[in-house]
Design goal:
Elements: H1 3-13, E1 18-21, H2 26-29, H3 32-35, E2 39-42, H4 46-59, E3 67-70, H5 74-88, E4 94-99, H6 113-116, E5 123-126, H7 133-145, E6 152-157, H8 182-194, E7 198-202, H9 205-209, H10 212-222, E8 226-228, E9 243-246, H11 253-261, E10 264-268, E11 286-291, E12 305-308, H12 311-326, H13 334-356, H14 365-375, E13 381-385, H15 389-394, E14 406-407, H16 417-428, E15 433-438, H17 440-446, H18 450-455, E16 461-466, H19 481-487, E17 491-495, H20 501-513, E18 518-523
Parallel strand pairs: 1-2, 1-3, 3-4, 4-6, 5-6, 7-8, 7-10, 8-9, 10-11, 11-12, 13-14, 13-15, 15-16, 16-18, 17-18
Helix pairs in contact: 1-7, 4-5, 4-16, 8-12, 10-12, 11-13, 14-20
Amino acid sequence: MDVTTAIAQSLKEEGVEYLFGFPSNPLFDTGAAEEVGIRTIITRQERTAAHMADAVGRMTSGEGIAAFACQHGPGTENSFGAIAQAYGESAPLVAIPAGYDRAKTDVDPKFNSLVNYQHVSKTCEQLTDPDAVGETMRRAFNAARNGRPRPAVVEVPKDVFYEDVPDFEYERPSVSRPGPDPSGVDEVADVLLEADRPVIFAGQGVHYAKGWDALRELAETLEAPVATSLNGKSAFPETHPLSLGAGSKSEPGQLAHFLREADVLFGVGCSFTSTAYGITVPEDNAIVHSTLDSTDVNKDVHADHALVGDARLTLEALVDAVGERLDGGSRGRFDDVAAEIEEVRDAWLDEWRPKLTSDETPINPYRVVHELTEVVDAEDAIITHDAGNPRDFLAPFWESTEPLSYIGWGKTTQLGYGLGLAMGAKLVHPEKLCINLWGDGAIGMTGLDFETAAREDIPILSIHLNNYEMAAYDTPFSGDFADVATALGGYGERVEDPDEVAPALERAIAETEEGTPALLEVITAKETELSRPDLDG
């Protein structure tokens, strides 16, 4: 067999179900991936394809790695941003870009993935020896799956794809889950039990570790409130009496209230990276930091105590240690903490109810979010959004109830990210209603890939908040995107009356249930007010 076939067989042995990307790459062009039973999905542009692979990795907690492939030269250049995004968001995937022939790979100005992708990937190799296909692919999947999940890149020069590989046999790498230091667990258990007002802050690592049950058990045992990062949103049910919601640029009022008064902040499965899209870590309190990646400890935030290890193993160890110390007893404060959360939350919602129920036209975007929460059953949905206002309008008010039902992110994010995430999520969970919420800038970046959803039978619900400008930048845009959606093979509808938002949502959802992707274009006001509770009180 040749290198192309050997790579395809490696992907199959790794359990890869989807290869996303864009020709020309021999994995697509020769049919090698399809011949071994891998579904190939061609997108309108490379970035969307990598975003779909990103979503598959996240939706399967890193177990279902997807692959991405593209053309040498412009294909690798176009996809750079998406791989960088996956790296920043710790999303696992394996990228197999083609490269120029070995004789030309280092000739300026040809784009060399080996050189250029090193800073946006966990590992980056160039496959130049046909005999090394197995070990190279094994290293890539080992890197993507073990430790902190991130993209692994294997660049294959064009001429290498067609080289012969004798006697090929692929062996999958093992998967490891490191646990925390037992003595550190005992120390942290004492710190948490001695705290008067502890707060748990859960990040995306809880999703990858599938530590949802252990997180809930620890919170209920400690009778401590739980906040999440935007990446960690849905790791703890936001309808739970101890939920504080997710920290972001826009967040619910109860979160800042409890962070302000916390004497111990326990971060688990998070990096505590300083960002405008995360929590502001309060000062003058104790910080306990549990993470899989030791390089995150003391990176931006000084940790008084640290536990390095898998989030679920860490949480389970703490549940046992705290339980032993309580010896079946209760701290006796659950009702008081829950009542305080409810009181602050209700007061915050009262402040925002006029916008959430506004009858103004153009439609207030908060009214769209409110109707979405009323029409959609969160237990049956997976939702994501794009950067800027769609994120800021949605995140505080959408309550996620099931693990992995919200796809968030924690750094500056390229516009158009949400569409690929929603499509990837729909492939993993065809039984779910998968939604992306975006604005004018985002739909301009990747909107034509709505055609990919129609062509590939991926019936997502896409909601475009159209205020004819890009956020607060006063940059005018125009276009009738409902008509565009229809022309691209989906269902499109424009909504201008606030009382029609809910009926339009119901019609669009019905279309997705029939197998047609739907796009609602809602004409909205130029809303600028965000929920930014003051941590200083």
